[in-house]
Amino acid sequence: MVGAGLPKYWREAASLILVASNRNPPVKNIQLGNFDVLMLKRGKGSSFLPNAYAYPGGVTSEADFDARNWTKVFSRVRGFTDLAKLLKPFKVPGVRPPIMTNRECGETILSPEIAFRICAIRETFEETGVLLVCNNSDVDLTKPVERLQGRVPPMAMAFTDRDFDDQDWRNRVSGDASQLQDLCLTFNVVPNIWALYEWSNWLTPVLFRVTQPPEKPRRFDTMFYVCSLNAVPDKSELYTDEIAKTDVIVVSN
Hints:
Blueprint: E1 11-21, E2 35-42, E3 53-54, E4 57-59, H1 67-78, H2 112-128, E5 133-134, H3 166-175, H4 179-187, E6 190-191, E7 197-203, E8 220-229, E9 246-252
Parallel strand pairs: 1-8
Antiparallel strand pairs: 1-2, 1-4, 2-3, 2-9, 5-6, 7-8
């Protein structure tokens, strides 16, 4: 998703690095980190980088940038009618990458600081079944959001509810990204954008020469975020994505 009229040599995407403390590390040495990372292993039949390990994530959708509908969600659940006021905790000093500045935001287009976080949360749910949302009491917005600057960020928790059919909602969101808005309104939650910490922006290297914009670009301009979970879900609680030919794994460090 890039500015109107610009050639599309790549697609915009968001990815999420999910980490959690390993309570039973293979090596009891704090200098080695002793944490778990949730990753995906692409199947050998995958159309893009088969057999490679990757973090959950994927391309953006227009629904991620739908300011009007997301304002309804955040207004009903958290009481926010002006999403611009949510941007202060996410401001990063210095020059921002083009992916964060190449569109005009307003009443219809959501700020990329929020939209890319929503995309990362949505794609992680689609690919792993882990849903990062919060309700009106989960996040204290009167306190500044801690950044990863030598301080331990607050832990996030994957959403659970006895009436939540995660497989059904996962299929619905995978088929239509705007269904994440319906999910939030149904369970009175919002994407936990406050738990995602900006890590890096990465553009896929040039693997082969392209003389004109391809119909479906194979390069991705990706925003990476980090989220610290209270615990990585058990393997039995995660999903193998048959459509994307990926398997969910937990890597211990």
